[in-house]
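User: I would dearly like some help making sense of a protein record. I have put the entry right below:
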Amino acid sequence: MKNIHLICNAHLDPVWLWRWQEGCTEALSTFRTAEKLTDEFPGFVFNHNEAILYQWVKENEPALFERIQRKVREGKWKIMGGWYLQPDCNMPSGESIIRNISEGRRFFEKEFGVRPTTAINFDSFGHSIGLVQILNRAGYDSYVVCRPAKDNFDFKEQDYRWKGLCGSEVLVHRSDENYNSVYGHAAKELEKFLDETQDEPVSLFLWGVGDHGGGPSRKDLQDLTELIAKKAEEYHIFHSGTEAYFAERRQKEEAYPVVERSLNPVAEGCYTSQIRIKQKHRLLENEIYSAEKMASAAAWLLEKEYPKETFAEAVKALLFSEFHDALPGSGTQLVEEDTLRLLDHGLELMSREKLKAAIALTAGEEPLKKGSSCAFFYNPHPYPVKGQFAFEVGLPTQNWDPCFYYPDAFCNGRPVPTQSEMESSHFCIDWRKKVVIEAELLPGNNRIDVFFKPIEKRPVFAPIDGYREWVFDNGRMQVTVNTRTGLVDSWRVDGKEFLKKGSFCPVAYDGTYNSWGLWNGKNAGMQRRFSLLTAHEGSEFSGLSDQVAPSVRVIEDGPVRTVVEALFGWHNSRLYQRYILPKKGTSMELELGVYWNENDMVLKLEMPTALEHADYYGQVMFGREKLRQGGQETVAQKWNALTDGRHALAVLNRGSHASSVDEGVIGLTLLHSAGYSAADGNFEKTLHEIRHTARMEQGERLFCFQLEAGEAALLETLDRDALVYNEEPYAFAFNPSGDGGKKGPAVLLDNEQVLLSAVKKAGEGENYVLRLFESAGRENSARLRLPWANMEYEAKLKPFEIKTLRFDAAEGTISETDILE
């Protein structure tokens, strides 16, 4: 007789539609009902996951929480999944997913003594292939999802083997009946399910009232009880849990279909919607993981207290923002505001901790040199970092003379190329200074002494609009800017052309009011290309009330870099675009400030490349993956790259996850100005009311990208470059006291293809965790050194392998440990 596992759950995510407060109150109400019904209906088992909901119950109704603990011991209530919450499973870094699982695991083991082996993410909009290795290393052998749906696969089976990176694999159940049932209709839906799944040797049926909350109802349990009795001669239908289903499924010893890719695409608009949340989420990730490295160094080298509780609070803010309707941007405007506020809270905590650690790590540095200003860069990475670095300092004394003071900088005592740029302050005297240097920053602290010399006035730069084509050439890289269009017509690196004419053109597409944004790149409707503003339009946009200037101009130039600014407009929107061109090297940066005032539109930045017959790759959790083309929207993490096997062009980002490629044209998706939580469903068309209705992304939005091009070998260190671009060396102006002894670096690695994902105090105990990741996709090794402790560890890694190490200072040992610490 065929077994049917009924799994009742309450998919509690009203956060997307209302606010987190409703998530708390919904959990209290649903858990109360479920707890009563487990006594009222013999054999009924309730399943639920997400530690944050249980925490809310514990804080607000401790007696209910204690009854749930008892129900778990009795087997009437099962802890599903065991994560902190159900996150987006594409955009968070692999390190963030590990933290999510770790937080949930610690909570459920402490409060309930359980450790689930089946992970669940019912409602996430796709799943990164990099997740599979994380699941395996966290002790999961199976996974239940609802998305993507069956039309995304070339087989009808709901169960399949999902193969990930580094030899990882889990058994997945795709629940085609979805995760919810309509109130009073659970039995009817089950009858239909039984007819549709007759070929399955064993079946799993998810049910629970409502799309976003409700759980079990008395009526549905009564109806199901009657149906179970009615079908008793045909089926053994019983209330169960996910682990029991997979245990029986494996006993059947059947062959399964195999999937070896990310489980995408799903709701492609969510790769872009509410871009500020995505950017601040990435920023908080960067700040937490770099701050942990700095705080660990201060604890090791100077015996400073490690702020474990503060980091825990910031991590929880990060994890909450990763909720699968918050980070994807499908929430209401209230949810957007709540999430941004939460991210700002985490950022403020990290700002304080980074400064404390940075000041402590200046121990032994000499006080300010006479007539100079001083700043420090703390490089949190275990290897030197080269590039252009900007910071601000004050002059040693205010300048009231009719001249301009220009900087000369010394990095660790050596002169380095230096230039002055427009500072953030617009005060009426020459006082605050923005300094840009070209330097190599060593691991740990780097001292920058800045001296100033008077020149006649602030540098001004000759107009370039007299040249139809303005060419920048640093010897290895040539960039041609068309002053009639403001676009880049050529980018050559070591003699190889990488871009075609008209590159970096902002283009507006007809989009959709749907927050989940199910548009298709090739069928997105009419394209509207932004055009260069006239001199008068550009001057008005720039706030130049008493002069008219060309809309393409050089705004910064010196020994370090040249910055070209171009101004564009279309319809009700304007933007400035800055090409940042270094005097050394082959990479360039792009900054955009978009002033957007369009409804139901998509904004892309298009780059027609010279690599027309190339593969498109993107970074995923602890790895990389080949992405689809043909103008289809794709999602990736810190970088995307086109390569034909000989050459490559890569784009690094700081929180812009979506892009497309069609016939060699890269389209970086910047904005999706849909309605908030807007979708038609089976009802009438949404947003039809005769009233003003707010759209996402109205106002100023800022973007930055770093572009690299050259031989295909650059892909081997692209993860490192993207990590450095995101976790920037920490800059701060400071006059050190001179007290204490000067310290060296805390951690060193001798292989730039092996990354240091995390350095932090372990979740439990006094030991520290160091997490390594092989980023080049090859058998590799690296020597990890803690020079201050006179210790080293030789790590051998498989392609894309994650390896977690535990450092026990008391015992003087470094050993491999569980990914969840």
In short: The chain has 13 helices and 45 strands. The first strand starts at residue 2 and ends at 9. The longest helix spans residues 275-302. The radius of gyration is 28 Å.
